[in-house]
Design brief:
Layout: H1 22-25, E1 47-62, E2 65-67, H2 73-77, E3 99-101, E4 108-117, E5 120-125, E6 130-147, H3 149-157, E7 169-195, E8 198-228, E9 235-249, H4 252-255, H5 261-265, E10 271-284, E11 292-295, E12 299-301, E13 310-324, E14 330-342, H6 353-364, E15 375-378, E16 382-390, E17 395-404, E18 418-426, E19 430-433, E20 436-439, E21 444-447, E22 449-453, E23 456-460, H7 463-466, E24 474-486, E25 496-498, H8 506-512, H9 514-520, E26 522-523
Parallel strand pairs: 11-25
Antiparallel strand pairs: 1-4, 1-5, 1-24, 2-3, 4-6, 5-6, 6-7, 7-8, 8-9, 8-10, 9-14, 10-13, 11-12, 13-15, 13-16, 16-17, 17-18, 18-19, 18-20, 19-22, 20-21, 22-23, 23-24, 25-26
Length: 525
């Protein structure tokens, strides 16, 4: 019997495919995907318009068990395991023998992250030296932190462990949570310095976040004993002491989601809040004169070319929180119990939050009156630093540092820290990159591979795990489909052009009226 953490399996019910996307996010052709790494990336890109059509990612890592099944961890997580490894009812055949324990861990941690990046638009205002982006995505973040080995063994392998039968196991603890939400963002970026070889741009993203799901356990102490029944496959769990905070949103929280204004921008969601990303990018451009273009009344730079020798970016991402305060959908309680016997079968076939709520009430003698109906969940805030060096107009290498700044002992969503170096070959329509990283809190090495061709990109930040080589502890994969419209110089026989008086809305009118644009730009002869 797997007790309180069986709710983690609920993520299988959400077919949403975390923030890294290392093989594409550092590219000069990342489009709206670069906004998630640093909002300043929206400005001075090679795109006039970038429309993200679809993108998805799945990212799982842990520091406790290795995968040893005859099928890949990626196939298990995405439910794409071949038929020969499935039971007659279609379910994937699974055994605890497929997991190999790591030894000597004092704090077990696991992370499951997933993004679905929906329709998103980026538009450049050339003469204003600024750009805007509108982004949408759905996110799933599952964290297990501050977990001792004994608790981790029960979570991962269940209670059928004869080696610990009838032992009093004390001072156990763990923190676990699942969060799923929808995010809508508005990004504004602008060039603020363009002085000879020095260039800088700033960016800001404001976003509304609406909750779809939350389940959490903050277990400060649990002392327990496992007692076998006559049937060797059944065990009882006796809690000598349990001190914890437990909460969830009921199933109606996700069922209420929709495109109606009350849910998108009102108080209908079980929880909602606001987030902030802010960042800057500095570029060193020693050969800036090579990119000069003369207009009738001024000089400007060629918008179709990358101009830097190196660039550095720094950003604060996902500052903010969600407030859950819907009386009908939001439930949280503190548990301080002693001598609680939980018979085998008490937690059985949990396939929804409502069923988990009912079975927790039965196990611990709780009623609706024991719950409060409000709590806050901070977003997975990180500091992101990037450095990119240009060896030529096609060959680059970038370094990425992402540092989590949230506490592991709270309701916060946690984005694991990482460091990566990503060499890449990029052109307008083709790109290949190979990120080399230390992820999962700088503890696990990985080598990835990503490619972009035309309007499609595919990648993984952990190729070895994706191919199921060795005994992986993680899986990672992402893809995207987009429609680009590149920036270009005004049409004409020379590089010398007349430019009309600037108005901000003229850029929009020009884009949707090509004939007017041709009349506005006239060659100097």
């Amino acid at each position: 019997m797997r007790l309180v953490f069986c709710f983690i399996l609920l993520f299988v019910q959400f077919h949403v495919f975390s923030q890294q996307w290392l093989g594409i996010s550092s590219s000069n052709y990342s489009g709206t995907h670069g906004i998630y790494a640093n909002p300043a990336n929206v400005a001075d890109t090679r795109y006039k318009v970038y429309l993200n059509l679809a993108g998805a990612n799945i990212d799982f890592a842990n520091n406790y068990v290795k995968w040893g099944a005859p099928y890949s961890l990626f196939g298990f997580v995405t439910n794409t395991v071949p038929g020969k490894h499935r039971a007659p009812n279609g379910l994937i055949r699974y055994s605890n023998s497929y997991l190999e324990e790591a030894q000597g861990k004092s704090n077990v941690a696991a992370f499951l992250g997933s993004d679905v990046r929906g329709p998103s638009l980026m538009f450049t205002f050339d003469r204003a030296k600024m750009a805007v982006g509108l982004t949408t995505r759905g996110r799933l973040i599952t964290n297990l932190n501050n977990t001792n080995i004994t608790a981790a063994k029960i979570i991962m392998f269940g209670t059928k462990q004869p080696s610990i039968f009838n032992l009093s196991l004390t001072d156990n603890h763990f923190n676990a949570n699942i969060n799923s939400y929808v995010e809508m963002g508005l990004t504004v970026g602008k060039v603020i310095i363009e002085d000879a070889d020095h260039f800088m741009k700033l960016g800001l993203t404001m976003k509304r976040v609406n909750a779809l799901l939350n389940v959490h356990y903050l277990v400060n102490q649990v002392d327990f004993k496992i007692s076998p029944q006559a049937n060797p496959n059944k065990q009882d769990l006796f809690l000598e002491k349990a001190v914890a905070t437990y909460g969830l949103t009921k199933t109606g929280a996700s069922a209420a989601a929709g495109l109606n204004p009350n849910w998108l921008f009102g108080n209908t969601p079980a929880g909602f809040g606001y987030g902030l990303d802010i960042g800057f990018v500095y570029e060193y451009r020693p050969d800036f004169k090579e990119y000069d273009v003369r207009l009738k009344d001024r000089m400007t730079t060629d918008p179709t070319q990358n101009k830097y020798k190196y660039k550095f970016g720094l950003a604060l991402l996902d500052l903010g929180q969600m407030r859950f305060n819907n009386n009908e959908l939001v439930f949280q309680t503190s548990i301080s119990k002693t001598n609680v016997n939980i018979p085998q079968g008490t937690f059985n076939k949990i396939d929804s939050q409502d069923k988990l709520y009912s079975q927790m009430n039965n196990a611990f003698g709780l009623s609706d009156a024991d719950y409060r109906h409000a709590f806050n969940v901070p977003l997975p805030a990180v500091v992101s630093a990037t450095f990119d060096y240009s060896f030529s107009d096609k060959i680059y290498a970038s370094a990425t540092l992402i540092q989590n700044i949230r506490s592991n002992n709270s309701l916060s969503m946690i984005q694991p820290s990482l460091f990566a170096i990503t060499p890449r070959w990029e052109t307008k329509w083709l790109e290949v990159s190979a990120p080399v990283s230390l992820y999962n809190g700088y503890k696990t090495p990985a080598i990835g591979l990503a490619g972009r061709a035309g309007a499609l990109f595919l990648g993984t930040d952990n190729l070895v795990s994706l191919l199921n080589v060795g005994n992986p502890k993680s899986v990672n994969f992402y893809f995207g489909l987009y429609a680009p419209l590149f920036r270009k110089l005004p049409e004409g026989p020379t590089n010398c052009y007349y430019e009309p008086r600037f108005t901000l809305f003229q850029d929009i009118r020009d884009f949707f009226n090509k004939s007017k644009k041709r009349r506005k730009w006239r060659s100097i002869r």
